[in-house]
Amino acid sequence: MYPSSITDAMVTSATDIPGFVITENVGVVRGIVVRSNSVVGSLFGGIQSLFGGNIRVFSEMCDRARSDAYRDMVTHARERGAHAIICFRYDATELQQGVTEVLAYGTAVKVAPR
Q: How far apart are the C-alpha atoms of 73 and 65, rounded to whole Å?
């Protein structure tokens, strides 16, 4: 049975999907999110940094950015008819002070059961 849509189990940083054989390379897919800190978030983050430890405001912002980029990557793969994504990675770049791009990318593939 062919997968009808991509699930989290069908997205991997590995080069294959266990139990499946790759039948077609659909191409690179990506999700890009650009985020900036709000004034309030930056203020609270700055105060928390004075005390050390995990800076929850920034952690939550990063987690949301990665989740959104991941979701957009999976949507891109589905639009191209892919069954899975292999070689999945995240990348982040600071575009300017307080503005960061988060990129989720991988290779979209079609698969068949072994």
A: 12
- Euclidean distance between CA atoms 72 and 111, whole angstroms: 21
DSSP string, 69-111: HHHHHHHHHHHTT-SEEEEEEEEEEEEETTEEEEEEEEEEEEE
- At 51, which CATH number? 3.30.110.70
Decide if 22 contacts 57 (C-beta within 8 A). no
pLDDT of residue 99: 83
The alpha carbon of 9 is separated from its chain's Cα centroid by a whole number of angstroms, namely: 14
Q: Is residue 1 part of a domain?
A: no
Q: Which structural domain range is residue 92 located in?
A: 8-113
User: What gap in Å lies between CA 109 and CA 103, rounded to an integer?
Assistant: 19
**How many whole angstroms separate alpha carbon 66 and alpha carbon 33?**
8
What would the pLDDT profile of 19-54 be if each residue is shown by its tens digit? 999 999 999 999 999 987 654 445 544 555 555 556
- Distance linking the first and last C-alpha atoms of the chain: 10
